[in-house]
Amino acid sequence: MQSRQQDWLSKTLAGPVAGLAIGFAVAGLFLHLMPGNTVHVGRYFVSRWVVIPVWLSVLSLVYLFQNGKRAWTVLGLAALSGMAALLACRNFLH
Length: 94
Fold this sequence. Notes:
With 94 residues, the protein is mainly alpha-helical. The chain has one domain (8-92). The protein has helices spanning 8-33, 41-61, 68-92.
């Protein structure tokens, strides 16, 4: 039980910051990979609502990491890889 409570401040900061970046990356990928017209207003509305469940899922699961360093490392790498995938989609699919 003691090991799960280590670095709670670091974990608490990793969840919202990295979780929001992951949410934006997932929403952007959802927007770019969804079939259909790219200027359709409904696509932007739906992709905007993808951010909240992803962000809250990361925020609620961040306390399962062993320590804050591991939370920042895993979530940071997930955010960077998501943003890299989004950048690749923007550059190569259009």
